[in-house]
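Case study 2.
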Amino acid sequence: MPGLQLKGADLSPRQKDLEPIELASRDELAALQLERLKRTLNHAYRNVAHYKAKFDRAGVHPDDLKTLNDLKKFPFTTKDDLRQNYPFGMFAIPRDQVIRVHASSGTTGKATVVGYSRDDLDTWAAVMARSLRAAGCRPGMLAQNSYGYGLFTGGLGFHYGAERLGMAVVPLSGGMTERQVALMSDFRPDVIFVTPSYLLAILDEFRRQGIDPRKSSLKIAMCGAEPWTNAMRAEIEEAFDLHAIDNYGLSEVVGPGVSCECLESKDGCTIWEDHFYPEVIDPATGEVLPDGQHGELVFTTLTKQAMPVVRYRTRDLSRLLPGTARSMRRMEKVIGRSDDMMIVRGVNVFPSQIEEIILKDGRLAPHFVIELRKVERLDDITVVIEARPDLSDGGYDACDRDLAGRIKGLIGVTASVRTVKPGAVERSLGKAKRVIDLRGKH
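Prediction:
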């Protein structure tokens, strides 16, 4: 931040390595955010027909933004808006100035497309390098990148951020689990970039090969791309004897690099607020909620050129918290998505709630799916959960009863439970699919 000075004598040795903006005062940060937010709104209004039409319909103009609080006057952007403008209708610069295009899988509808200018890619690499440094990564470390490369932003986002920081990267991508373990044993990487569910599949392969995962070279696992609980973090850290760090991003905003946990605190992801302005809203009413209250995360980009997004509804449920290791605010670990929430006989149920209960039972492995069916016009769930290898067949019925009882007692919903043999639940090579919707199927 221009003109921002920090007194070196007042900083810890670790803080002296930080960018000045990471320790800026809230007033300094707010001034920068307001300046950049005004620029973003004007850029979107002038160059994206969708935003001009939407602002005009809402009766707002970029000049109406006088304070950060005025942002709530502007309309939201949703995934449907992006799909309706497929493929390049949301771009704010000429297509021939866009030098990278990513897209979602489009499994639930038309894909959402994201474009990047050269400066956007530079910013993305910079926030990813900042995230990796916050997580404890350092120049010279070797990283095994087990996120998917291609249209998905994960693999390339981590790759370029690591290289920007000065790390060496093994671009392995997801899958080939036996090879993941083989190269880990041969190359001795310090860090792995991976979804937490796939890291558990890698853990299974270590054990299948009779290799002690605690003797691996890994010191840090950069886990993200899906909701995961602190109970799963504890499982991973204990199994591998490493630090499992949460990081958060989404392709519509930039990709990974929106926020990341700091190694010294591991208390929620610090949002890089100089590039991404966060809000939390009531998902039903759209009302902006005060910091500390749970709701749906909303982001506005502050520096993107090719495809700025204004008040993008992420559907991720979290809350904003004060900064700790950095002056920027944190987001609590995502507890689920508003569109993943199941309403079972009037009770709101998230897969993360069931995961947390499962991981407290030493007889059960962290591999499960939830089957959702319609029974007599009401939604009904069955939890299919793997037993650990040392559980005898005779213990499966007791697991079924115990887990069903705990789900009923802690969540308040009646669930069927089916404990199955190790390996029976299909492994994910990327984001875990926890809910299988069988409603309407015979």
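Residues 1-9 have pLDDT under 50 and may be disordered.
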